[in-house]
Write a structure and sequence with these properties.
The chain is built from 11 helices and 11 strands. By secondary structure, the protein is of the alpha/beta class. A 7-stranded parallel β-sheet has the order 3-2-1-4-6-7-10, sandwiched between helices. Strands 5-8 form a two-stranded parallel ribbon. Helix 3 packs parallel to helix 4.
Length: 336
């Protein structure tokens, strides 16, 4: 499967008004893509289109709530009306309720599922026919490391991300069986410094936080741009996320204990926040149409992500380490 270079692509970015989506749209614009950007925040989209145009790229904004299938399909329709085709769909929209499970209402839990799981499902329903018409393309969903390892106080969010991974795996298998040249990518960030925690609904009594360390949104955007050009199955962004995924596979009971001890107290800040304070669960809120959040001082670099966007180096390094291990084992046998 060969995908177009980004400067030849028409890309829809959903959840584009802030955070990972906004950074991705800006990086795509710098690389020359034509863009359709969507979110609930009309003000955020308007400012984003202005920034994109400063890079000399073309963009239109389509306000939409991804929990409504008709509104998601309107994004696809606007893409065809303006540009005549779709090459890549990037789905980054998400919301959360950070709370002990027994304090979450059925309406709140359902809303998170509607946005985080049904949103990408509706997006695939809208995007796949267009990608088939184009003849090739990429559908990229921004999930979370929580697709692999659930976190306490985030039951609905974790459930939605587990469900999203299952959906993408099933969809990918169907398309591969048909021989359809559409790449399906699951991007799973670790804790990212975006306004996500400012906008989430919380019942902790305080403003929530991810469990540090944080990574900058630019790392996730770089992974997304790579997947838009090179078919990629899964990408975990952030070295801590890789470590969590590995530990979950080999010692899930241990991880249960660790996240209980670390993540329950670790998701609380000292800033008071009431449950009815502004949040974006059901309606967009203003003031957070930015790429980064409040935790830049807690961000660290990630080193292993580089190998995902340089696969030849990854396999060369793996082969080299394997050869060294084999030689060492043989030498040890000879010494015996």
């Amino acid at each position: 499967m060969k995908l177009k270079s980004i400067d030849q692509q028409v890309v829809a970015v959903v959840g584009a008004s802030s955070g990972i989506g906004r950074e991705t749209a800006l990086q795509l614009a710098k690389r020359g893509a034509k863009l359709v950007v969507s979110a609930r925040s009309e003000a955020g989209l308007a400012s984003l289109v202005k920034e994109i145009e400063q890079f000399g790229s073309e963009a239109i904004a389509v306000p939409a709530d991804v929990s409504d299938c008709a509104q998601v399909k309107s994004i696809a329709a606007a893409t065809i009306d303006r540009f005549g085709r779709l090459d890549t769909w990037v789905h980054a929209a998400a919301t959360a309720v950070i709370s002990p499970f027994e304090q979450v209402t059925p309406e709140e839990f359902k809303r998170v599922i509607d946005v985080n799981l049904m949103g990408p499902v509706y997006a695939a329903m809208a995007a796949l026919p267009l990608l088939r018409q184009t003849g090739r393309g990429a559908f990229i969903a921004i999930s979370s490391v929580e697709a692999r390892r659930s976190m306490p106080l985030q039951t609905s969010y974790s459930a939605s991300k587990h469900g999203l991974e299952g959906f993408l795996d099933s969809l990918r298998a169907e398309l591969r069986h048909e021989g359809v040249p559409i790449s399906i990518t699951n991007v799973m960030p670790a804790v990212i410094n975006t306004p996500f925690y400012n906008k989430a609904r919380t019942k902790l009594g305080v403003k929530p936080t991810g469990v540090p360390p944080y990574y900058q949104p630019s790392l996730v955007a770089e992974a997304i741009l790579h997947a838009a050009e090179y078919p990629t199955r899964d990408m975990i962004v952030g070295d801590v996320g890789r470590a969590v995924d590995f530990l979950q596979k080999i010692a899930p009971d241990l991880v249960d204990t660790l996240v209980g001890a670390i993540a329950i107290p670790g998701q609380r800040t000292q800033t008071i926040k009431a449950v009815d304070d502004p949040n974006n669960l059901f309606e967009p809120i203003s003031g957070y149409d930015t790429v980064t959040g409040d935790f830049t001082d807690k961000t660290i670099p990630s080193f292993l992500d580089w190998f995902d966007v340089h696969p030849a180096a990854k396999w060369t390094t793996a082969a080299g380490l394997g050869a060294i291990a084999l030689i060492a084992a043989n030498l040890f046998k000879e010494m015996e």
